[in-house]
């Protein structure tokens, strides 16, 4: 923690990739140096086009194609632009001493590269963030790292960019399918360096963070990050359409949230170390931070693991519902409990836990008490934090590139994507990727019995007034108040914060809102939805194994069933490839998987009361039923190798005051006063 923060500070102080002194961060730099591995003639052509597009700046083309030490010194004083030829040595380069980068290839002309550079140099989008409950045009924005650090806006809204950037050029999307970008980290760098503020997270810092986040050793020595696997069902066979499973569960906690929560803690660490908002300039800001998160199962384990690896000095407190997570998820979180980590069961559902977290963030008295007594600020690791959502865009670009490389798609040809959805975060990441130019046709939203989002997509009305949350085998979908719908509303209404605030107020007061026509039109144009009950989910687990030889968890089974419904409804009128998000490893949910496969361990099924020994027996039963095609993931296998697992941890009633008192004690504040 302290050593790495010192390294960040050293980088910023000694390699200041900021606009020169006296220039506005939102303005075009006045002096630009162009370097890179592209030939000198190509770089000269880029400069000629840049001069035409942005004549206010002065440009220089370096004689040497590869940056040298003295050249990097020049970049310190002048704005550095890399124009890169596409080859392995260049794309995977380690010297990210530049501000912006564009590629040239046989498909990307110097003029096209220059246009891309001009967009990056002048577009402030994704550098300025406002609350979803404020108008994008008039609200006072915060920076990218400011949004990461604060988590939730003071008015209760979620941070969103004032505007999404222009879509990536088709040539860039096509470029990502070339061999150098098969490495997940290399592709992540190419995408994310266009989406974060280069003044706060320079490419060199971002590269180091990505390398740490997706380190092979931390990912159980698995070389692939989010690989795709072939699956099928009868409707797909009949239509000769390809179904690909996006295996988003290959991370340190065997859940899709690892992709964000291995990178996000490092952004948060940097935000709390070197970032200071203008509002803080006159204050003695608290130096400590505490992450408070609610989980329906996977966020808790992924957040704890990510912060322990990426920012171990920051405290993390996780609230989870007593009956809303699987026994494996509970034991996984409890295996990391202690020290700077506190895992607390709450006698209610996930919606209560998430609402409580939001209420605490909006409770000035609690925040002030933690600040005064413990010199600590609160922030969040849920997908209400923009920094949690942004890394999830990458695996959709990665999967698309893989499908093109494998010949399943032609470059530019769209794919449909089916996502099991509870809090609307994962599918929103894919929606934003689509808005950024990723060729996605329909977004297929998969609900379980808690199908409020299915109804929302179908009718444009969000109504939970007569609903009660049902506990299912897919707890990450067991959500009635989907937080990220608010971001979707803000994006689609072109930043109409007043309209979003009114809808959120209506949801809070009357438990429903009716979306405006623009939102309904976008839902009908871009989305399709379906639902899956518990019996059908178990049948989908069995069908997927019998027809594809793949054992899937209940969330993936919900998505597979809704994907089947989608193909049956539309036949050959949609994209020829359907990507299905597989969000968790089956071993997180061994009991419903065993039920789906039609087997049970000798001691029978124990439900939420299952112990570590019961889970080990379930693993053996599923492995035998699957004939060796159902290995337990490495991270989960390591947990259950231990014979000293804590079976239970702290538990609180569904009482706001009790939860606040526990939080104050954990933060080091005086809970009694």
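Q: What amino acid sequence fits the structure above?
A:
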């Amino acid at each position: 923690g302290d050593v790495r923060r010192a390294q960040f500070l050293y980088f910023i102080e000694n390699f200041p990739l900021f606009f020169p002194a006296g220039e506005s961060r939102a303005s075009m730099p006045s002096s630009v140096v162009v370097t890179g591995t592209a030939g000198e003639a190509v770089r000269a052509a880029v400069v000629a086009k840049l001069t035409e597009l942005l004549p206010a700046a002065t440009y220089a083309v370096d004689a040497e194609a590869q940056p040298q030490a003295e050249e990097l010194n020049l970049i310190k004083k002048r704005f550095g632009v890399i124009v890169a030829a596409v080859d392995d040595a260049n794309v995977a380069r380690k010297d990210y001493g530049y501000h912006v980068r564009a590629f040239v290839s046989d498909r990307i002309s110097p003029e096209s590269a220059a246009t891309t550079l001009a967009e990056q140099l002048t577009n402030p989008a994704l550098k300025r963030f406002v609350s979803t409950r404020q108008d994008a045009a008039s609200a006072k924005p915060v920076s990218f790292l400011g949004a990461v650090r604060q988590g939730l806006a003071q008015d209760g809204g979620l941070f969103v960019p004032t505007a999404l950037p222009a879509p990536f050029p088709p040539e860039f999307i096509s470029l990502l399918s070339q061999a150098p970008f098969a490495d997940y980290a290399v592709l992540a760098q190419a995408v994310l360096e266009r989406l974060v503020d280069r003044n706060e997270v320079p490419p060199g810092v971002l590269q180091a963070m990505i390398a740490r986040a997706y380190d092979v050793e931390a990912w159980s020595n698995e070389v692939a990050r989010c690989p795709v696997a072939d699956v099928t069902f009868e409707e797909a066979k009949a239509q000769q359409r390809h179904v690909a499973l996006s295996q988003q569960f290959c991370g340190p906690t065997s859940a899709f949230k690892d992709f964000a929560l291995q990178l996000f803690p490092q952004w948060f660490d940097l935000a709390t170390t070197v970032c200071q908002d203008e509002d803080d300039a006159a204050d003695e800001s608290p130096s400590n931070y505490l992450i408070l998160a609610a989980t329906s199962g996977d966020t808790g384990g992924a957040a704890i693991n990510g912060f322990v690896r990426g920012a171990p000095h920051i405290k993390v407190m996780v609230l989870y519902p007593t009956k809303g997570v699987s026994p494996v998820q509970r034991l996984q979180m409890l295996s990391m409990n202690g020290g700077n980590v506190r895992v607390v069961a709450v006698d209610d559902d996930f919606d209560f836990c998430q609402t409580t977290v939001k209420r605490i963030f909006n409770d000035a008295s609690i925040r002030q008490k933690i600040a005064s007594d413990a010199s600590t600020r609160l922030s969040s690791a849920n997908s209400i934090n923009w920094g949690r959502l942004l890394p999830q865009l990458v695996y959709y670009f990665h999967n698309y590139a893989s499908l093109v490389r494998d010949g399943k798609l032609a470059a530019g040809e769209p794919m449909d994507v089916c996502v099991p959805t509870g809090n609307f975060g994962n599918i929103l990441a894919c929606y934003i990727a689509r808005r950024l130019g990723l060729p996605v046709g329909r977004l297929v939203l998969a609900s379980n019995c808690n199908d409020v989002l299915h109804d929302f997509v179908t009718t444009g009305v969000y109504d939970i007034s007569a609903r009660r949350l049902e506990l299912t085998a897919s707890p990450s979908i067991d959500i009635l108040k989907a937080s990220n719908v608010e971001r979707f509303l803000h994006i689609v209404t072109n930043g109409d914060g007043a309209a979003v605030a009114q809808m959120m107020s209506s949801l809070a007061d009357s438990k429903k809102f009716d979306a405006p026509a623009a939102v309904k039109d976008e839902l009908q144009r871009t989305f399709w939805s379906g639902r899956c009950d518990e019996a059908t989910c178990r049948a989908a687990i069995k069908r997927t194994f019998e027809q594809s030889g793949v054992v899937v968890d209940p969330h993936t089974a919900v998505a597979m069933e809704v994907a089947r419904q989608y193909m049956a409804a539309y036949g050959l009128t949609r994209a020829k490839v359907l990507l299905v998000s597989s969000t968790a490893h089956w071993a997180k949910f061994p009991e419903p998987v065993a039920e789906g496969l039609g087997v049970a361990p000798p001691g029978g099924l124990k439900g939420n009361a299952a112990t570590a020994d019961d889970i080990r027996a379930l693993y053996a039963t599923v492995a035998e039923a699957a004939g060796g095609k159902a290995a337990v993931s490495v991270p989960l296998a390591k947990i259950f190798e231990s014979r000293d697992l804590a079976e239970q941890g702290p538990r609180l009633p569904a009482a706001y005051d009790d939860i606040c008192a526990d939080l104050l004690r954990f933060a080091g504040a005086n809970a009694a006063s």
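Q: And what stands out in the fold?
A: The longest helix spans residues 554-570.
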